[in-house]
Amino acid sequence: MASSSLFLQFLVPLLLPLLSITPSYAQSHRDISLGTSLISTLGQNTSWLSPSGEFAFGFHPLETDRSLFLLAIWFEKIAQKTVVWYANGGKPVQYGSMVELTADGQLLLKDHNGQELWNAGKNASYAAMLDTGNFVLVGTHASVVWQSFDTPTDTILPSQVLHPGTELHARLTATNYSSGRFELRFEDDGNLVLYTVAVPSGNQYDPYWTSDTIGNGSQLVFNESGRIYLAEKNGSISNFTSGSIGPMEDFYQRATLDFDGVFRQYVYPRKGMRSGSWNDDWTSVDAKPTDICQAIAAKTGSGACGYNSYCTIDERQHVDCECPPSYSFFDPNRTYKGCMPDFAAQSCDADAKEIESLYGFKEMIGLDWPLSDYEQLYPIEEDQCRKECLSDCFCVAATYNINDRNCSKMKAPLSNGKKGSYIHTKSLIKVPRSTQSPPPIPTVVIKDKNSWTGIRSLLLGGSALINILLIAAVLLLAFYSYKKRIYSLQPNSSETGTGLRSFTYRELQEATNNFSEQLDYGGLGGAYKGCLRDEASTFVAVKRVGDLLPDSEVEFINLIKAIGQASHKNLVRLLGFCNEGTERFLVYEFLSTGPLKSFLFRSIRLKWNQRVQVALGIARGLLYLHEECGTQIIHCDIQPRNILLDDNFVAKISNFELGKLLREDQARVTMAVRGTVGYIAPEWFQNMGITAKVDVYSFGVTLLEIICCRKVLEPVLENDEAARLTDWVNICYRNGRLDMVVGGDEEVRFDMGRVERFVAVALWCVQEEPSLRPTMWKVTQMLDGAATVPVPPDPSSYISSIQ
């Protein structure tokens, strides 16, 4: 009896691959004949269903943009339409794309122009979408010539079997199906391994989980009862997950390598089970690893989250990426990209006294970056640990373990950050002192009531001369106290409650040496270089607003508050303002590199790769203003003069004083024409409501200038069409002559694919009809290559939309 049981235990794993394919022949299915095709469009049949209707194969509209489609397989009978497989590397296609089972038995995906994007199989007689979720191409004698189960993406389903050499790739995000930062690989040696990988190269970093079955693993089986296990060559079985919760007739099931790097098994209750403890949603019943924050400790790469961030596990056992104090996300929509400091790095040339006045520490318990230390000091006291890190310009943080008095100094960028109760160290994060609570403002307070009695007695009883001297002394004391109070204000002390400093006109006059050094940007009113009389002698750009704002003073203050609360890598930081009588000034951080226009239209130009990053930076800054800051801000004058560059040529949008706030209850506003000729959207002159799309138009013009290094208007050119940049580039694009756009720039000629994409995005942005222009969110997606760029219509036409 025991030998029979052992024999069956050995035999079942070997038979499972055959059993998993059996439905290809035995179950009922709807044949998809040769020559049958589907077209991507909304409102029409765009899928082939399995016999029960449980699964669908075809064009699945993206969650973020229903004008784009993924060739995919999904659960059809549940509200979420969860995708379990996708073709073409997860790249979406647009309206009019087609998938066809060709006459020669090949499954073929073509874009809207008829260009082949992806193909599978050959010599098939028909195709079928099975009730297992497997899409098959069937050849002669009922043989399977291709099946989706053999080329999984990020998900496996019950009855699916994986063999050595198979991989699962996590998505980049929940809604971006391109390959992300994690990979599950069934190694050829039989070991099952989870890796972190570099994006976009796919280079594997160190594994963070392994089945430890080197030489033994033969199959990874997801059986129909919901059990996932590793069948080993010696006949034994190792559970991969223990998430079997009931028979298939009660639950839909799947197992997915999620975009956060955790392999989770999910169940979804069928209609009869949607009561009691089961919600109408996918529920995770098991995961590998259980805590990815602890599991990942790669010597290279950033870890579970991006650089300068740290990983925590929320109550749903999902990964949260967070920034340490005085750091912010590079991209709030993609927190895995990591965090950047919101302050200038410590100078290695500063003396100790200056460093102590500029930097301090924020404490966080249970936080560590275990692989970022470059020096350990022990035994040592915590105060000395702080001093050692503070005096070291390479040290951005330190961790201190009170038990063994161990001090570890951390270098930038911080990697593999994690926070949890299992960490018994204290992190000391170096931050500028301005982020700490400002010292109390010194005030002159006369505490003793009798003091006033004494002064009054002197005034009444003394001689006239003494009275005059006493009055003068009191006035001088009051004036001195007032001046001392004014100069003691820190940048975080502000009547607006935004962290902005309210300057007096006299302070700005002194800081700019009576406005003597004018900068080559700033527009109307001008901008002046200044130096504040603070401990750091901070350089600033003082922008005179003057009469640029015809709106009420209330709107000016509201705009100041909105700008003061805005914080983004690609925005020039506003430090303060002056609103004294008729004098209005904005005080910005000073960027010595200057405006973008100085590096586009002169003999010294930015390299192509730098220009690409500048364009992406402007787009991300505008996206933040339009959609991510507390109050939507329309800039109204995007152009190279208003884009400043820092020392690393990072683009920062400036000159917000022309901006317009858009409240939540407003879709558009009516206002006087603002902006600069050549960059102004047509609706300014058409008595139409103004929306954020005016900035999209200006960005499109600026993007063409960045590509071509040519001004939008060149009246010296004889050809009228060539004189206006948008018209000329449009003609070159439609005639297939983008080589004329880039001229003799060899660096650009090696990147014509990106040039074509950027030009197409720009032409979408400069459409005359505002509704045809994409949002800045869509613009950033298309520029990054995360979304397909459709062929833009002629900018003067109104024929289609990619909204």
TrEMBL record:
Main localization category: membrane
Keywords: ATP-binding, Disulfide bond, EGF-like domain, Glycoprotein, Kinase, Lectin, Membrane, Nucleotide-binding, Receptor, Serine/threonine-protein kinase, Signal, Transferase, Transmembrane, Transmembrane helix
Transmembrane segments: 458-480
SUPFAM superfamilies the UniProt entry points to: alpha-D-mannose-specific plant lectins (SSF51110), Protein kinase-like (PK-like) (SSF56112)
Similarity annotation: Belongs to the protein kinase superfamily. Ser/Thr protein kinase family.
Organism the protein comes from: Elaeis guineensis var. tenera (Oil palm)
Compartment annotation: Membrane
Taxonomic lineage: Eukaryota, Viridiplantae, Streptophyta, Embryophyta, Tracheophyta
The name this protein goes by in its record: Receptor-like serine/threonine-protein kinase
Entry's Gene Ontology BP terms: response to other organism
Record domain Apple: where: 348-435
PROSITE patterns according to UniProt: BULB_LECTIN, PAN, PROTEIN_KINASE_DOM
Residue intervals of the Protein kinase domain: 513-789
Documented EC number(s): 2.7.11.1
Reaction(s) this enzyme catalyzes, per UniProt: L-threonyl-[protein] + ATP = O-phospho-L-threonyl-[protein] + ADP + H(+); L-seryl-[protein] + ATP = O-phospho-L-seryl-[protein] + ADP + H(+)
Recorded name of the encoding gene: LOC105050207
GO cellular component, one term: membrane
Organism domain of life: Eukaryota
Alphabetized InterPro entries for the sequence: Bulb-type_lectin_dom (IPR001480), Bulb-type_lectin_dom_sf (IPR036426), G-type_lectin_kinases/EP1-like (IPR051343), Kinase-like_dom_sf (IPR011009), Pan_app (IPR003609), Prot_kinase_dom (IPR000719), Ser-Thr/Tyr_kinase_cat_dom (IPR001245), SRK-like_kinase (IPR024171)
